[in-house]
Amino acid sequence: MGGRDIGGAMSQKFHGHKFDGTHDIIYDRKSRSYRLLPIGRNIPSADKILEAAGFGREEHQIDIDVREACDQVDMGQVSHAEVKPHLQMYVTAWLGFSKDFRACWRFIGEHVLHSELGYACTPSRIGYLFGELGGKPGTSARAENRDESIFPFSKRRGTSAIVEITTTGASYSAGPWLAACQLACIEHVHYFTPEIRMLVRLDGSGRYSFAVYVDDSDKDFFLGALEKYRRRMEGWREKLRRWLGLPMPKQMPTEGAS
Q: CB 3.0-4.6 Å disulfide test: which of 21, 29, 140, 215 passes with 9?
């Protein structure tokens, strides 16, 4: 499991089971799904749900390696100098972003579960941004998007945020995927509602750029994709039951039926 909640244990329910510190969510990269242990229940990822709607995210190995390197440095497992040489400038860019925005992370690579809607995801960071837009032209890491009006920054309390790290830039699914993470985070993490959703692109030259997603339609798009995914899964189950000769589930009588 990724970083833990420094504010205390979490308690949720998933289909009648209590979700707390005694349960783990394990991600299977091959099937793009999660497994809730010790229950043994498979949970689709937000990626898999969006993929069913034709908007899957293509994950490159460099993205995986860079995220892992940034995680290790942020958690103090390795120093910047100990990172593999071909990843060091990406980490330089990430540290520049974290410094510019005075980031304070509550979760690092944490699997978050939406128990009611039945999916999970793993945003790179969940936490607070205390700084204003930082960086100056010519520095090793600087912001290229300087539209400060979209940031409800409060230096005193910070701005709650979900941040995803990438090296390949934005895709059509980035907005809906971050919206899915936001919905899961609201349910999974008590008393924490992310105000902004941010995609940070790290460059091998040591610079970073970012995009902020504020469109509420991203949430509606993901919920629509989730409904499409559920219908497809139910269709497969029905075909499997027919093929195996199993009885079909009983249908609840509709209102007014005799």
A: 21
